[in-house]
Amino acid sequence: MFGSLPYCLYCHRRLNLAALVLLRLCLEMNKNHFSLPRLSLRFVPIWRRNFLVWKKMAGSSILGHLADPVIYMLGLGYGLGGMLPEIGGMSYIAFLAAGTVCYSTMNSASFEALYSGFSRMHEQRTWDAILNTPITLDDIVFSEIAWAASKSLLSGMAVLAVIWLLGLSHSPLTLWLIPLSLLVGLCFASLGLIATAIAPGYDFFMYYFTLIITPMVLLCGVFFPVDQLPPFLHNVSSILPLTHAIDLARPLLNDAIPAHFVWHIAVLLGYTLVGFYVSLVLFRKRLSQ
User: Fold this and answer.
1) What pTM was computed for the model?
2) Domain extents for the chain?
């Protein structure tokens, strides 16, 4: 009988933790699901925690995020590029490289916000443990966005390093692709967390990638100019965030200041803020049930 006492104490502790987390969530959620975010610097320790976990497998993670976009860039760039004329005053591989930077950062931020974020929230119950501290749900959601954007920044910089090594651009303006990668990461991490907040399981994310991410890759000018699209699809493309990211990246790679760059930045920031707010509201509803 006494041999099972440590296990009973363990179960008792777990139940107390779950009760405290549930009580705190109920107190927070009863205020208002739609209240504006209240952020603090308490998100920093969560970001650092995610970084320390990632650091143990940093090499394989960077290689995994780098291999796919670089293979596409080199395979299509040199394969199709040999049969295509210049596009917009650029070689096809340089044209493709600008889209690849944005495509890579989008993918990295989306995967982290969806699969890893869902694991921490639902499977590993990391959020439950964090909520048993003075940290709020608002800080947790913001930390997830900041961490996913940080990983996407590494992906964007890795692709940019390949661009420099291949001599595809020598313009100092390409340095602006670094903050652009961070902004793109923030944008797609915020949007990805909306899917995470409503996902019943990992299989749900296939809908997000099939119905949202893949069409954006094909419609937003990664592989070909959006001017080649029919008018309806061209109009659809013009409101998608990836289009605005590529419209910023491609001129920078071609040693030119992007036209209407303030508008493109504002659109990406708008998607980021709306995505953050909507995902936070959905998380409040989900975790209060």
Assistant:
1) 0.85
2) 40-288
